[in-house]
Amino acid sequence: MKKYVLLSVILCLNFMALAQGWRKGEKEIKVFLNSVADYTLLSDLKLNGDINPFEGIGIMYVNAEELNKLEKTGLSYKILKDDLNEYYHDFWHQDVPPGYYSYFKVSIGLTFVVLIN
């Protein structure tokens, strides 16, 4: 059973490594939401991102076509990252990206879990 769990974890890590990244020309933007109508307008666009009602903002990930649709609504926004592919270009070429563990640390942790069970 332990072998199957370990094999499943390894397979999941391999599939995660195949992730394709951002769409071509995709931007990260902050949309300012001042009323319920603004929330409805943004929600109707069905953009990728998160809406934070406590701060009255939405952090959205848009391509050029989606940005044009957003501009037509009249909602105010600010571009945070103009090209996400360029911004994160060297992300996976670091020794260990910020907030992640090295392979060695993961394997030690998995070994410990297997040994205590």
Provide a short characterization of the protein structure.
By secondary structure, this protein is an alpha+beta fold. The chain is built from five helices and four strands; from the N terminus they run H-E-H-E-E-H-E-H-H.
What does this entry look like structurally?
The protein has 117 residues and is α+β, with helices and mostly antiparallel strands. The chain has one domain: Metallocarboxypeptidase-like (Alpha-Beta Plaits). The chain has helices spanning 2-17, 36-45, 64-73, 84-87, 103-116, and strands at residues 27-32, 48-52, 57-62, 77-81. It has a 4-stranded antiparallel sheet with strand order 2-3-1-4. Strand 2 and strand 3 (57-62) form a beta hairpin. It starts with a helix and ends with a helix. The relative contact order is 0.17. The mean pLDDT is 84.
Number of continuous helical runs: 5
What's the structural domain tally?
1
Largest sheet: 4 strands, antiparallel
The residue-averaged pLDDT reads 84
Q: Distance between termini?
A: 11 Å
**What is the 3D form?**
elongated
Structural class: alpha+beta
Q: Which strands sit side by side, in order, in the main sheet?
A: 2-3-1-4
The CATH class = Alpha Beta
Order of helices and strands: HEHEEHEHH
Residues in helices, as a percent range:
40-55%
Beta-strand share of residues: 15-25%
Radius of gyration: 20 Å
Q: Please count the beta strands (DSSP E, at least 2 residues each).
A: 4
CATH H-tier superfamily:
Metallocarboxypeptidase-like
CATH topology (fold) name: Alpha-Beta Plaits
Task: Please name the CATH architecture.
Answer: 2-Layer Sandwich
Q: Which regions are unreliable across 5 or more consecutive residues at pLDDT < 50?
A: none
